[in-house]
Write a structure and sequence with these properties.
alpha+beta; 60s Ribosomal Protein L30, Chain: A; Phosphoribosyl-aminoimidazole Synthetase, Chain A, domain 2; 7-stranded mixed beta sheet; 6-stranded mixed beta sheet; 11 helices; 13 strands; globular; binds cobalt (II) ion
């Protein structure tokens, strides 16, 4: 679908464009001068949870995450709103309050927005971030020997699907909501500090899909250790009960050919790794000599972080069991 647009906006015609359509990265990056580049992105979606404040906060954290995935800081945000006429004003106000509180937490400013009428509510942000041009982190750049880190646990997709089927335990939903609301800001600062070679965030294409993009754009292979992957409480159980959203199936058909999964890994677990995440963590490739200090810094800042594997030569993704990184 984007091919025609990629031809129209070919990167070689726009020298200031550091990351554009061709790159297929988390956000666009446009160089203003030697010191400043602008990061531009947007994201919006239908409610993932029942509470309107939480929905607003999650949608905002998710929209701003692509700025953090590029290693930047958020500067400005605009509301993107589609609400039915029948939606009570109080609920709309709560959604907007949830989003605005996240923008404040990001150290950014909300400067406007646009609302249309729509039968199905949708909310998100258009986001402008800033970064030093030489600090931009893309999906390309991971090198054999790098260590892979992940900054949020997996499993949001099965928990929210269980929630929609009214079978999710409230404590499981509460920790999924807290995880989705968490900003990737501090994590991005620490990943920058460690001199990461590549970075992206884990959202709709799941750990496997986003990992695969990093592998392809960096011309490397990612080896992921199943035992080292963090899962939200309840996620594995809901996967065993087959509480997979529709996106799991499309990710499966898109990525299954490019992944090599150890024979002793069960089907449910394989599907869980292909299940869309919402407002997931950063996946970063970090030079091996920086990892010990990086994990200590995450601990010190009370930010979650897991070492989940390493980068090797080759292509695609290899999910292994029984060996330690
Ligand atoms: Co992204
Ligand atoms: Co996005
Ligand atoms: Co990036």
């Amino acid at each position: 679908m984007l091919r025609h647009l990629q031809t129209m906006f070919r990167a070689d015609r726009y020298p200031a464009l550091l990351v554009g359509l061709d790159d297929g990265d988390d956000a666009a990056v446009y160089r203003i001068n030697d010191d400043v580049a602008v990061i531009q992105t947007l994201d919006f979606f239908t409610p993932v949870v029942d509470d309107p404040y939480d929905f607003g906060a999650i949608a905002a954290a998710n929209a701003m995450s692509d700025v953090y995935a590029m290693g930047g800081e958020v500067a400005l945000a605009l509301n993107i709103c589609a609400f039915p006429d029948t939606l009570p004003q109080g609920i709309v106000a709560e959604i907007l309050r949830g989003g605005a509180d996240k923008v404040v937490e990001a150290g950014a400013v909300l400067v406007g927005g646009h609302t249309i009428r729509d039968n199905e509510p949708k909310y998100g942000l258009s986001v402008m971030g800033i970064i030093r041009p030489e600090r931009v982190l893309t999906k390309a750049g991971a090198q054999p020997g790098d260590v892979l880190i992940l900054t949020k646990p997996l499993g949001v997709g099965v928990i929210t699907t269980a929630l929609k089927a009214s079978v999710a335990e409230p404590t499981h939903v509460a920790s999924a909501v807290a995880s989705m609301k968490r900003l990737n800001r501090r994590a991005a600062q620490l990943v920058q500090e460690a001199g990461a070679h590549a970075c992206t965030d884990v959202t709709g294409f799941a750990l496997i899909g986003h990992g695969l993009e990093m592998a392809q754009k960096s011309h490397v292979r990612l080896r992921i250790h199943l035992e080292q992957l963090p899962f939200l409480e309840g996620a594995v159980r809901y996967a065993e009960e087959h509480r997979f959203p529709g996106g799991t199936c499309s990710n499966q058909s898109a990525y299954e050919r490019s992944i090599d999964v150890a024979a002793d890994i069960e089907e449910d677990m394989r599907l869980l790794l292909l299940t869309p995440e919402t407002s997931g963590g950063l996946l970063a490739a970090v030079p091996p000599d920086k990892v010990r200090h990086l994990t200590a810094r995450f601990l010190e800042m009370e930010e979650p972080c897991w070492v989940i594997g390493e980068v090797t030569e080759g292509e695609g993704i290899h999910v292994v069991t029984g060996e330690r990184a």
